[in-house]
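request received
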Amino acid sequence: MTQSPATNASSIPSTANIEESQKIAHVTAKDFSIYYSSKEVVKKINLDIWAKKVTAIIGPSGCGKSTFLRSINRMNDLIPGCTVTGDLSLNGTNVYGKRIDITALRKTAGIVFQKPNPFPKSIFDNIAYGPRLHGVTRRPELELVVEKSLRQAALWDEVKDRLPNNALSLSGGQQQRLCIARSLAIEPDILLMDEPTSALDPKATARIEDLISELRGKYTIIIVTHNMQQASRISDFTAFFYEGVLIEYDQTLPLFTNPSKKRTEDYITGRFG
Amino acid sequence: MKITTRKMLDRSFSSFGLFSIVLMILALLVILVPIFKRGSTAIVFNGTVEHRRFLLERFERGDEQEMASEITAIQAAQKPVYDMIEHFENRQRKYLDALNEPLTKLAKRSDSIGRLTKRRLKRLDKNKPFLTNVKTIQKLTDRLKGHVDSDNIQAEIEQLDATIQKIETQTKNLVELKEAIRELLGPAPGETRPVLLRKQYGQTRWDRAQVKLHEVLYIEKWDYSNEGMGRKVFEPRVEHFRGTEIEPLFDYMETNTEAMLRPQLTFYWGFLTDKSMDIHIFGGIFPELLGTVYLTLGAILFAVPMGVIAAIYFSEYARPGIIISFLRICISTLAGVPSIVFGMFGLAFLLNGCHLPKGVLAGSLTLALVILPTIIRSAEEAIRAVPRTYREAALSLGASRWRTVVTVVIPAALPGILTGTVISMGRAAGETAPIIFTAAASVAATLSLNPLQVWDQPTQALSWNIYNLCTEHEAANEIQHVLFGMTATIILVVLFLNLFAIILRARISKKLKGETT
Amino acid sequence: MSVTVLKKTSILNTPSDNLVLSSRANLAQNILAWIGQSFLFLVTATAAMIVLFIIFYIAKNAIPFFQIQGLTEFFTSAEWYPSGDPPAFGVLAIMLGSTLVTLGAIVVTVPLGVAAAVCLSDILPFSISQTIKPIVEILAAIPSVAYGFFALVIFAPLLQEEGGRLLMVGWYLLAVPFLFIITIVISEMLTFKITHESSRKTARTAALFVLGGSFIALLIFVGNTLGNLTITTGTNALNVSIILGIMALPTVVSVSQDALQAVGRELRDASYALGATRAETLIKVIMPAASGGIFIAVLLGIMRALGETMVVWMASGNAAQIPSPWFNYLQPVRTLTATIAGDMGEADQVTGSSRYHVLFAMGLILLMFCFLCNLVSEWIVSRQRKKLRGEN
Ligand SMILES: Nc1ncnc2c1ncn2[C@@H]1O[C@H](COP(=O)(O)OP(=O)(O)OP(=O)(O)O)[C@@H](O)[C@H]1O
Ligand SMILES: [Mg+2]
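response:
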């Protein structure tokens, strides 16, 4: 059921120094392609993303990273003309299969966007939005969830006195952490992050990175980033995309220190992209 | 062309642009300033004692004791006037009585003159108005002139005729004068209370009192001595009464008007909250205001839900295609339909077709159609202005599309939707043509304050009654302040709604920036 | 492999089959979504169909008139005695009234409105145009009955008493600068071809004198004629035209301002770079580029003036006669809208008679005209959109 690395050795290099028994494929792509109208922007991708690990996706601008990421919880459905072929399964269930409950899917795979996008509501209501959707309506329960998520997102201490304030009054970094907390509040298995720190200053970036490190091991995290250092600092695995093709996918350390493909090396060393 | 000419052309082009803007501003001022200036006199004016008396008697507002003392004061001031009139009347009566003797003499004759006189004299009656008796005798002398058979009788009759003629003119003049004074000061003491409300009170406003005083002092006549158009001339009324007891009356009235009417600066806020009495000669414009409010709210009640739903459909659900562009064209055509055609439609469909009664419901429905396109358009704009990221955020948390719309998109678009709604309210409040056939009545019972009871009642409305009063009111001149007041009110209502919309709009951008909590 | 599966379920909170709906639930969800969408569509379609319904209903009530009375009298006679015996239903005079008043309003509003729009978009600094905007909005917001009231109670008496002098002042104000500029421009145009320097100068001076003299004569003649006009009634076509012109101004100003601003910065810069003055840039480059939008503004202005009821009803004099001569703006006229408003009250008592249906025939004409204007402006908009798309 899950794609083991051994059966697909040609495209996915060895991952020997992590114990095989720890690795459980959470997201699996098989010959997965994404089209905008007729333009293929993600091309026949095969990969396994391992549960409870942090996976970074890197690659030059326009290579389809965001598109791929958004396809995991079907956010691309909103874009008219976007179609997919091949298989993308989450935990063994084909995401694009029949009778998929998109609501449940998105509850399983939360997403954080490049630009923080809190609702123009109070901080509390922002966090409580997801739980409310999924049936939590009693105030004490909501308060618990809100506090827990905010604590997880390391934002609690900063905002605990101003929960009724408008979320838009927070700083950019705080807003982004709020968005992460909002995603955590629906208790997802997977956290998808699309360049979550690109709009933030170094200090705020550091906080988010710390946060990701703290969440490591609790969630499957997939993060798109343009920042090589960031990828190497926080991720367990790294996938390198180039023009819609998955060039290389490996544990982060080997991939950065000893890339097996020329393109990867060029990109990492900054020769292009 | 020379460079200087080109520069001159350039400058004159700019000046023409500026000129047109100045003209636009001027037009606005020329329209608004007089309306507001004269409109404000409906509320702020010099009110006479009659105004206060009216308020006390009809609306039970004011202090009775104060009123009593005021009335004593004005009665003291007015007494000389009525005294003079009474003296004058007594004198006329004496003149008439003096005719008794020659007339009875004539009646004793056995010829036709005697018979005629006798018959006429029987008709005289002390209880009849003085002028009637005078007229009876006048007719007699008139007839007698034709029956004359001898000279000495002729002289006698002519003498009689001249005397009665004089009495008649004087009495007539007096009646006119008394009428003019009554219009100014109200009914004379001891006079039976007139039926018409407007005759029960003198002038309530000092400015109108001034006009009426002028009518007391001067008689308006048309001078046709010039070729073509006649010219208005004013003849002092005192000329009619030279050498009589009344001659000093005019001077007295002119110098003592204030004492007789006691004008005071008055703020009559009741103009907005009182019902009108005797077709706006007294009271306020509350019924019109209430009618306008009902019609406007009714229109909003129907148009907003429908408009917002259509806007949601257009912006969130509709896939571009032939059907959608057709629907859009339909709506923009609806926006271009002349308002009178909406009125006709309301009449033909709602009233004659669906047999709705002429009233608030039919009017509101018609107005709702008028404002529907505006509401759809502004709501759609507001919804489209909601950032896509809000929708993405909601959807990514597992909200369904409808849930996203209801919990995120609509709240974020609400100020924009409200802005459009408020502007449409202004439009609905100002429209006249659609309600002429469907809801408006020039005189109607004041609507109940309970909205459930009014739906089938025809109503007054500010817009309609402005038209109606200034084209059809029998005394439009007397109620200019009401007309201006009403017009100023309707403009203010609409402008306030627009101002409110502008403030709302300003708050939207602030809110989107997160400046408010 | 089986080990992996076991472990998977133990460390993940959501079992995988939670993502798949039962076919029942799926069906229910789909049906619900379909019902919801259909409801929205239905409401929207109803809102949109109202206009068709209006057209249908007005036409339905108009047709009996043509069935009873035929078309000829309606369109060719100027006799309007709907309550006479026999009644006469000639609408020619009334249509002429509507036309006159609308034309008058357009003559007032278009030059002023477009000039103001140009000024707001290109000449005045941004902050000042922002402060002027509310004025335009206020003009647009004032209810038509208030305009009518002004026309009837304030403007009509003024026009009746001081009309001649007002017109004279207006004429001088407009004509003096205009003729002055025309004189200079024409005399330059005439002598432009002469190559010899000094002879060109003398020719130009001569042309200036001749033209200037004749224009001054014209100026004074027209001014005097206007000044000596006696206006028998202030409720006439002129009054209404001016007021309608002011009412239509905001529409014309804001729509053409939008059109002017839609023309990009680049075009302006290109023209200025070639040394054109502001006026030349605006007239030769910007206004042609924005001509579609300006035309729409004019159409909307026409629709506003033609469809207005209260002002014309109150202040046009309501005389169903052809003025003599037919373009005499100083005589009272009667328009379609005012006739509908004024006659419906009595006609409704005799629902079903020609007298009732003729008003709907008039309404249908109004409606058709507005419909046409709307289609034309819709067409212009779509054509422009295509053009823009083609260029990008
Ligand atoms: N809505 C869309 N319609 C059509 N094409 C799109 C759309 N969104 C993205 N694309 C195209 O798809 C390709 C991949 O886009 P994507 O946003 O996934 O790139 P990316 O790798 O995330 O780039 P970046 O690092 O700049 O975010 C690009 O060529 C882009 O032009
Ligand atoms: Mg991206």
